[in-house]
Amino acid sequence: MYTNNKLRAGGIFPPLTVTGRDGEELTLGVPRGHLEWQMVVVYRGRHCPLCTKYLNALEGHLADLAGIGVDVIAVSADSKDQLEEHMTRLEISFPIAYGLTEGNMKTLGVYISEPRSEQETDHRFAEPGLFVVNQDGRLHVTDISNNPFVRPELSQLVSGLAWIRDPENHYPIRGTFWDAPDDT
Question: What range(s) does the Thioredoxin domain occupy (predicted)?
Fold first, then answer.
């Protein structure tokens, strides 16, 4: 039986290496350039029109995210050819990667689905996940879903991250209390 292990809020984000569109190795959770935090967006793949819409909408928030020090990367289990075909419908400038393995998906704690048909895709794929990793490499914000219809609303997410990143607010990582499972 497969157990979905969620990453712990406040825990160290696992540094997973993926392959970017241009063949470069990218490490999830490690921001690029002068930015201190990174938002990792796990999406289902080219077969998902809602993913296409979400990634294109995310592009419109890049300047605000960069303004608060948050880098963005997206990744799926698609192949390089599938990513290239998907790029014909994506209007994004942030890095995008392919080849997320089932082992990577399990490490991230995202839900994994079987394709409904060969027309959908030819491999198991991750359901949506969003992880915001802070300057210490710790998971600061997370959201995972078992279907494409539930994802963080981007304007609210960016506004919330601006609030969290404002040093005047002293906002801690939330959801860090973990207790042993109740046996009753």
Answer: 7-163
Is the pLDDT at 179 greater than 80? The verdict is no
- Residue 178's pLDDT is 66
Nearest by Cα to 39 from 84, 100, 123, 95: 95
Q: What is the CATH number of the domain that holds 61?
A: 3.40.30.10
CB 140, CB 132: distance < 8 Å: yes
pTM, two decimals, is: 0.91
Q: Taking a C-beta distance cutoff of 8 angstroms, is the pair 145, 137 a contact?
A: no
Residue 174 in domain: no
Go through the chain and tell me how many residues it has.
184
DSSP codes of every residue in 21-71: TTS-EEETT---TT--EEEEEE---TT-HHHHHHHHHHHTTHHHHHHTTEE
Q: Which residues 6+ apart lie within 8 Å of 52 measured at CB? A: 46, 86, 89, 90
